[in-house]
Amino acid sequence: MHFASDNSGPANPEILAALSAANTGYAMGYGADEEMAKVTSRIREIFEAPQAAVYLVATGTAANVLALSTLSQPWQTLFCTRQAHINVDECNGPEFYTGGAKLTLVSDADKMTPADLRQALEGEENRGVHGPQRGPVSITQVTEFGTVYTLDELRALCDVSKSYGLPVHLDGARFTNALVSLGCTPAEMTWKAGVDVVSFGGTKNGCMGVEAVIFFDPAKAQEFEYRRKRGAHLFSKHRYLSAQMLAYLTDDLWLRNASAANAKAARLAAGLRDAGAHFSHDPQANMIFAALPRATHQRLFDAGAVYHLWDGTLDGAAEEAVTARFVCDWSVGDDQIDAFLALL
Amino acid sequence: MHFASDNSGPANPEILAALSAANTGYAMGYGADEEMAKVTSRIREIFEAPQAAVYLVATGTAANVLALSTLSQPWQTLFCTRQAHINVDECNGPEFYTGGAKLTLVSDADKMTPADLRQALEGEENRGVHGPQRGPVSITQVTEFGTVYTLDELRALCDVSKSYGLPVHLDGARFTNALVSLGCTPAEMTWKAGVDVVSFGGTKNGCMGVEAVIFFDPAKAQEFEYRRKRGAHLFSKHRYLSAQMLAYLTDDLWLRNASAANAKAARLAAGLRDAGAHFSHDPQANMIFAALPRATHQRLFDAGAVYHLWDGTLDGAAEEAVTARFVCDWSVGDDQIDAFLALL
Amino acid sequence: MHFASDNSGPANPEILAALSAANTGYAMGYGADEEMAKVTSRIREIFEAPQAAVYLVATGTAANVLALSTLSQPWQTLFCTRQAHINVDECNGPEFYTGGAKLTLVSDADKMTPADLRQALEGEENRGVHGPQRGPVSITQVTEFGTVYTLDELRALCDVSKSYGLPVHLDGARFTNALVSLGCTPAEMTWKAGVDVVSFGGTKNGCMGVEAVIFFDPAKAQEFEYRRKRGAHLFSKHRYLSAQMLAYLTDDLWLRNASAANAKAARLAAGLRDAGAHFSHDPQANMIFAALPRATHQRLFDAGAVYHLWDGTLDGAAEEAVTARFVCDWSVGDDQIDAFLALL
Amino acid sequence: MHFASDNSGPANPEILAALSAANTGYAMGYGADEEMAKVTSRIREIFEAPQAAVYLVATGTAANVLALSTLSQPWQTLFCTRQAHINVDECNGPEFYTGGAKLTLVSDADKMTPADLRQALEGEENRGVHGPQRGPVSITQVTEFGTVYTLDELRALCDVSKSYGLPVHLDGARFTNALVSLGCTPAEMTWKAGVDVVSFGGTKNGCMGVEAVIFFDPAKAQEFEYRRKRGAHLFSKHRYLSAQMLAYLTDDLWLRNASAANAKAARLAAGLRDAGAHFSHDPQANMIFAALPRATHQRLFDAGAVYHLWDGTLDGAAEEAVTARFVCDWSVGDDQIDAFLALL
């Protein structure tokens, strides 16, 4: 009954098998391994983007901060939601990597709307050299609240960004969970909608630790390489990143993992709904934000369930509802869900 | 016959076995995994340093730049040799992470001497606020030229540093190769000599990608944690770093790997010496810098040998000697050395 | 009829006279001039702070970014209002100088309240190393909307800050305008209320270009000096900064200038009120935010009045009110105010 | 008998007169003052560069670090001599403003030669992403040792730089002293030789505190403006910078000041030579590096002469020669030189 995070479960055994398979003989370091060439080909194929530049790093934060610093200038401000990982969970990594850019918080909600974005962009009105200049827009898909932007919503946000001449970054730490939720193609969810650069997550979806950064226009690729190296994110034994990503994209493992996680989350959500839980956001991928009475949380924790309370603690009136976050990864078993729902 | 680098061979199978063993059930992320507690204990034990703060990162550059930025201020200059990895192989990573500190190059040789260091320190004389202030001294052990500082040499350098009140960092990307070469204890090669912080390498010595940063005085440990996080070097699925390091330090794998690499390099060096090669530096660990005629290099390359020419190319007089770098890792087989020496 | 800014009028002739007087013979550079010793003494006397460390720079932004970077760490977030100069008018200077710290916007109003501040501080809850850590609180006095924090308000904000262990910075670009408005002592408006560091403005109050940074606790003074030098803000011919500040603090020039500016603004405000203008904020120093019909603005501009529309343009319904900002500096003549009010 | 520095004498009275003249009425701030338009025109005229972008700052360090950061990327290394002001006298300001670029020290001598530069550039050979990339070349004219590059020398250095595709920056803190020494035009000493950006000094040549940064190709001018603002170097009351620079360029004041300083230095040098002083560098502008016996220094200091010992102290054998630096500014009187030489 572990629903704390999609980074706390094990990696898919196919990932580890690929590591073992790659662990033979000599390989060129620093991204010149043969597996990396295959990763690039495979990602270009999947994204229908034959010119895309593709890079691997080991953490989602690295993918985000390196992508954003390549897209921006230190005197700009980046646009994201208040709850965006780049705002609340990277300890000022974006400010560090960009050399001191700012983040403008577009919305407190799970999703920014085109109207929110336009208002925030207008708020950074032309103050000449006095204020920060407008920089890239970063959209998180799956959102930090477990919802998924529709293709129309993505397109509309990209349209607003483009009307200001601004590049769009997609924080896709849970990219595949969104993809299978929407049932669209990677191209539709990215460059066809207007996205310029993607942080394409593997870690939260069954890998050990690997993320791809994909530039659909390779013009700034060389700059990214310098930034990755001086950020200390270029692996000497790079084949082990490549092997993970290649296995992830082989035999639909990425899709199988995300589909499993989403399906389990859907079962869990249905059970919670039946138990009377209130959902602050509609669970559309593998995360659920559901409110239950404190007494219920206490009982579940006592029985060994693991998950995070989101907007409160166990201190307070027993009957008062407190929202919790439940996350399913690829590995959660039906038995665990059954056990949890039985308890509930 | 692959002697290009100690990052091009495979990881030791014991490392991969440990990854598989760790790949079960749920684990807390971000360094709160149970394996990490064991890593800390084991490193404290090995280093006879019960108070040491221990952190894991995935690249040697990350270990160096995070350690050095924690030890320094942006208005300081760091002292190292010209060939130090932090100077020539990190694409200004130290300058980036420190917020703009400088490197003062103490010596062009493999090792800095106490006299070199003192001269460089005096060269950064007191210019009030105008010049950079003196910052940490960084020593590379094994040196970039395959030699090893003796304990006396290390102590003397640390003594100079301490006489200026400066902390000492040891870049130990090849820490264990030096250790088995000297036949001393980790404590003797570090804090007993006066070293304050160590980049303790695993990657070049048979791991997939893991390095420990060890602070003997934990006073700045909290700062290191913020720096690691905002540098995007804190792994969510941290257990896979821990598992590597734990396996590395179990059953003497670290010592076995380094001993094997050094022994193979000694055999290779002996054969090169017999073949008349000139050594620009005495090979004391697992790296050899040996000069051979161009014609010989050409013949070896044609036969499939892989290594780097260090100070020239194949263009030129056939009989002219060109220095090459040969590196042995833990995995190189006697058969490969035999084949190479037979060719030679 | 020029009310655009308190940086567009001339410097007080006493300032220029002091420059000329200082322009004789040789003087030590870089802050070692004799005038600077007098400046330090005078500021310590005025602030009843015999231990204070005092530094001069030439711009208000320099004072702010150097002060704040000395008080903070790159992984922290600073607390200020949305309209604070450090947020909207320094082109990410604070982010640059701090090495990538963040600003948390406490309030959209002119003043932050203790409740606002506490809520913002709680909003940066303990996320371990993931989120930014809490850093200094920066309060602007006179506020960007022309209001003045009472001593009680200042003390309450400082108390909240101190209860979180955070230092307090006062952006006093218009320090003296606030001081004469409150009728209190400099000590009461700063360290007695709990302020740790002040940007003490001269430029907007009749100087050519000089600001003092005052640290009541000199512990971090040496760090400030390094930061000022590497920020390129240490003047070689420093005597010309000193001479300005010394003249400013001689014969009550600072108080006379601010009193004049505030008095003229009060006359202007009274006239605007009589003419039916609506005040979005109570004008308590030398700035007025007053709404007039577009047609009135048009008429005033046509007659040669100079000031900034604040929240709109001349495009729109003629009878609709648009807020404008009027600023009086020390030099504005009664004749100008008379002429403007006659027009109105 | 004050020869300590060309920043310790008074400003030329014409500069102060210009400040007073400018101190009337209202002026637009932040560089939009009318005087600035005249400054730009005048500099374009003097430099025969009708497209040049021109900016003013108050310190020479600001001019250098803003110019260099605009020309470079954080992953590059800049080329200069060891004694360059940007290396030894800016407290890592260039590293700070560039976001962590490095300086490669081309030569320990007063001037770099084309061979030195080429060797240094080759030393930063292509290491892919591992090492820093080659960035701008910065040449100091007058050199830090009082010598002056000939036009042929400048052209040769620029030719080498251009052959690597690198921009050239001229640190002209003593630009005019070099100009009158060479008897050439500003265009000849800059863009006609291949210089791209100049720090055009005023402060050391009789101004209070003003330097121009001149971009002959205005393509990066907008970026410079953002960097100046966030560096806190954009003056609100900008007219006082403009007025200084305009007066400096009016009635040949810049040339008169530099000619006077050079002439006085020539007289001083002749007297020193007659007294048997040894010159470590040929004094070609307004700085002299001359060795005298310790006993002589002691005698001169005792008699009130002010100058800096350069490579030693008064402690040691009385008859041993110690090199001292003597600098003449525009204001030094013949009576002072007479008095000094009489003493000598």
From TrEMBL, chains A, B, C, D:
SUPFAM superfamilies: PLP-dependent transferases (SSF53383). Its cofactor is pyridoxal 5'-phosphate. Signal peptide: none annotated. GO terms for biological process: L-threonine catabolic process. It catalyses: L-allo-threonine = acetaldehyde + glycine; L-threonine = acetaldehyde + glycine. Residues 3-290 form the Aromatic amino acid beta-eliminating lyase/threonine aldolase domain. InterPro entries: ArAA_b-elim_lyase/Thr_aldolase, Low_specificity_L-TA_bact, PyrdxlP-dep_Trfase, PyrdxlP-dep_Trfase_major, PyrdxlP-dep_Trfase_small. Its EC number is 4.1.2.48. GO terms for molecular function: threonine aldolase activity. Keywords: Lyase, Pyridoxal phosphate. It holds the Pfam family Beta_elim_lyase. It comes from the Bacteria. Catalyzes the cleavage of L-allo-threonine and L-threonine to glycine and acetaldehyde. Homotetramer. Belongs to the threonine aldolase family. This is L-threonine aldolase. The gene is ltaE.
